[in-house]
Specification:
This protein is of the alpha/beta class. The protein has one domain: NAD(P)-binding Rossmann-like Domain (Rossmann fold, 3-Layer(aba) Sandwich), CATH 3.40.50. The chain contains ten helices and 14 strands. The longest helix has 22 residues. The termini are far apart. Bound molecules: nicotinamide-adenine-dinucleotide. The site of nicotinamide-adenine-dinucleotide has 30 residues, from helix 1, helix 4, strand 7 and strand 9.
Length: 338
């Protein structure tokens, strides 16, 4: 009989890049996507799955505990890959409540539902549920901010600075506690900044491309010197699939592609590619649209990931070249906007 795997947040950016390939690679699973469809979720992101026999969709809120319990029981859920979250730092500064509700309470609800359904007591797994796993997807932002040197490893102490990263850190601790206390089969991954198709227009890369197309100012925080470590979303998705199937219970895996860019250099790179792909009618460069705006409150200076553990233990490697994937990403947003 096919096993049912619950994928939360599958209509968002990373989830909707993950689900079509997961369905194709694992025809032996019933892939059930659960999403509240907040402003960040979009059913059209899942167009590749429509009509696929091993895919189905449920609109639900992970904050609704009764609904989560009902879904586990009625659909006999045998695995969870948990993407659903409020994910935009700026929104967490302006309105942190939804981050506390979804990222902390929602994650707790799912863990509790999994524990209640898969286990009978701490350390006691129901017969035939031994291989059921809960994979929790998190961010490198839980580690706080680096100076000019150093990398985040799995042993770096948590020091989150924004309501978003604090809510994710909290959910990581709860997930880990369910492993330690109850023996729930939990794995966690902490990944760096993703880029690729289907990302919401509020995030830096899509916003820059779309503002070029619309000839609108491209806002850059402060002087643009903040550094992020960028990974192509499909490389992250491969890491998640690998951890879900081969990771060790109770372990955390950092995922990153060792591709550090300042925000300003990234925006300039996009403008240069846009100048070539879609030259402005007035002959000017898109760089002229760059506009420096007041820095984000509590803005972390630098994130950079050490992925040695997942490379050595699970054989994962990022396969995508940044230059090629950035070009493809830009092509995707241009096609979508035109
Ligand atoms: P996203 O904002 O694009 O998508 C989140 C999805 O979750 C949306 O479809 C939304 O409708 C859904 N959702 C929100 N609240 C919900 C709720 N209460 N119940 C059910 N569904 C709900 O986010 P993303 O960028 O795809 O990120 C996915 C996960 O990966 C998040 O947990 C995020 O913290 C993590 N992450 C993201 C990045 C990144 O660069 N985007 C990097 C590392 C980790």
């Amino acid at each position: 009989m096919k096993q049912s795997i619950l994928i939360t947040g599958g209509a968002g950016f990373i989830g909707s890049n993950f689900v079509p390939e997961f369905c194709a690679r694992h025809p032996d699973y019933n892939v059930i996507v659960l999403d509240k469809l907040t402003y960040a979720g979009d059913m059209s992101n899942l167009y590749e799955c429509h009509g696929k026999s091993n895919y189905s969709f449920i609109q639900a809120d992970i904050c609704d505990m009764n609904a989560m319990e009902e879904i586990f029981t009625s659909l006999d859920i045998r695995g969870v890959i948990h993407f659903a979250a409020e994910s935009h730092v700026d929104n967490s500064i302006n309105g942190p409540r939804a981050f506390i509700d979804t990222n902390i309470t929602g994650t707790f609800n799912l863990l509790q539902a999994a524990y209640s359904y898969w286990m009978t007591a701490p350390g006691q797994v129901r017969k035939s549920y031994e291989s059921c796993r809960f994979h929790h997807i998190s961010t490198d932002e839980v580690y706080g901010s680096l100076g000019a040197e150093g990398l985040f490893t799995e042993k770096t102490a948590y020091a989150p600075n924004s309501p978003y990263s604090a809510s994710k850190a909290s959910s990581d601790h709860i997930a880990h506690a369910f492993f330690k206390t109850y023996g729930l089969n939990v794995t966690i991954s902490n990944c760096s900044n993703n880029y690729g198709p289907k990302q919401h227009a509020e995030k830096l890369i899509p916003k820059t491309i779309l503002n070029c197309i619309a000839l609108k100012h491209i806002p850059v925080y402060g002087n643009g010197s903040n550094i992020r470590d960028w990974i192509y979303v499909k490389d992250h998705c491969k890491a998640i699939d690998l951890i879900f199937h081969s990771g060790k219970a109770g372990e955390t895996y950092n995922v990153g592609a060792s591709n550090e860019q300042t925000n300003l250099s990234l925006v300039k790179m996009i403008c240069t590619i846009m100048d070539r792909k879609l030259p402005r009618a007035d002959g000017r460069s898109y760089m002229e649209l760059i506009s420096y705006v007041q820095d984000r409150a509590g803005h972390d200076f630098r994130y950079a990931i050490d992925s040695t553990k997942i490379k050595n233990e699970l054989g994962w490697v990022p396969e995508t070249s940044f230059e090629d994937a950035l070009e493809q990403t830009i092509d995707w947003y241009i096609r979508k906007a035109m």
